[in-house]
Design a protein that fits this description.
327 residues, alpha/beta, globular
């Protein structure tokens, strides 16, 4: 499954015939597929280096020596996201410890600082993984989903050889490796009518709550007028996190140019019918450390499996199968 030059083909990730198309394979698994049994989460609140806080949800393993699986969720996700629950179930089945660090403001409570989170937040990833690694000598495996995958790959590229001292292996799932291409795709047609509206439905209230904490932080009227993620990022995400504007943010935060600098075993999994990630924006060759999986089907963090109404375990089974394969 692994190779330095070729894009891998993964027959196990073929979608069921009863669920055709990238949009159906994105929406159905999130809303309608069978979910694994609910698990007992344990929450910890960590003080961040900048005086803010981050909430992490854990599913504890029976043994303190168990391997760790860490999941970095996607835009507006959390430990409640369908993919987080599926990976948590995989971890419980295999006796692993599991952790979901929440991006700032995504745990159900507003964070304290005049900032939120962004796709290139590799400094945040660095201190989170350092602290997680410091609490256990067991192997650490990390999965980043969508936006979380981009931040994870940015961290791996920035860290170079040092990443291998923290983690055993990485996987980025449905990651928009070229943020400008992904942003353009989600800002037009059906994507704009459905997905963009869903994201802005939660992102705008969070931004307005941040403005109430810090009056004058940004232009309220411009934020209310935003109808795309490009416009939202121009008003909120980019300036709050040190970028000139959306174009500067998307260019500097994108993981794709940093893939050649990754020095730890890494998987980049992207379905070729992902409505958020244009096929033309995907890398065509891996490297000695980065394996590309680009199956024809799966949608965006969908990868449904099984007979109707389907289940959500195809994705964690495939990703963790790769991670545990030493070849």
């Amino acid at each position: 499954m692994r190779g330095p030059a070729a894009v891998a083909q993964v027959p196990a990730l073929r979608a069921p015939s009863w669920l055709p198309g990238g949009n159906a394979q994105t929406i159905w698994p999130a809303l309608c597929s069978r979910r694994p049994p609910a698990l007992p989460w344990r929450r910890e609140r960590w003080d961040a280096p900048d005086g803010d806080f981050v909430d992490l949800d854990f599913v504890d393993a029976p043994s303190a020596q168990a391997p760790w699986l860490v999941l970095l969720h996607g835009l507006e996700g959390s430990s409640r996201s369908h993919y987080a629950q599926a990976f948590a179930h995989w971890a419980r089945q295999h006796g692993w410890s599991f952790a979901v660090p929440h991006w700032r403001g995504c745990s159900g409570e507003p964070n304290r600082a005049p900032r939120a989170y962004h796709s290139g937040d590799h400094e945040e990833v660095d201190w989170l993984l350092a602290r997680l690694r410091g609490r256990s000598a067991a192997a650490l495996h990390v999965v980043g989903v969508s936006m979380g995958g981009n931040a994870l790959l940015r961290w791996a590229g920035e860290s170079g050889h040092a990443a291998a001292a923290r983690v055993q292996a990485l996987a980025a799932v449905s990651t928009p490796l070229d943020l400008a291409a992904g942003g353009a795709a989600i800002g037009r047609g059906f994507n704009r009518l459905v997905y963009t509206r869903l994201f802005l439905r939660t992102m705008k209230p969070k931004a307005l709550a941040k403005l109430a904490q810090f009056p004058g932080l940004f232009d309220r009227e411009r934020l209310l007028a935003a109808r795309t993620l490009y416009e939202f990022d121009n008003v909120f995400t980019a300036p709050l996190h040190g970028f000139r504007d959306t174009d500067d943010y998307w260019a500097r935060a994108s993981a794709k140019p940093h893939l050649p600098h990754i020095r730890v075993r890494t998987l980049a999994l992207n379905a070729r019918n992902d409505p958020f990630v244009p096929v033309a924006s995907l890398p065509q060759r891996g490297s000695a450390n980065v394996t590309l999986w680009q199956p024809a089907h799966g949608g965006h963090v969908g990868f449904p499996g099984g007979a109707f109404p389907g289940h959500q375990m195809t994705l964690p089974d495939a990703v963790m199968g790769w991670m545990l394969d030493p070849a």
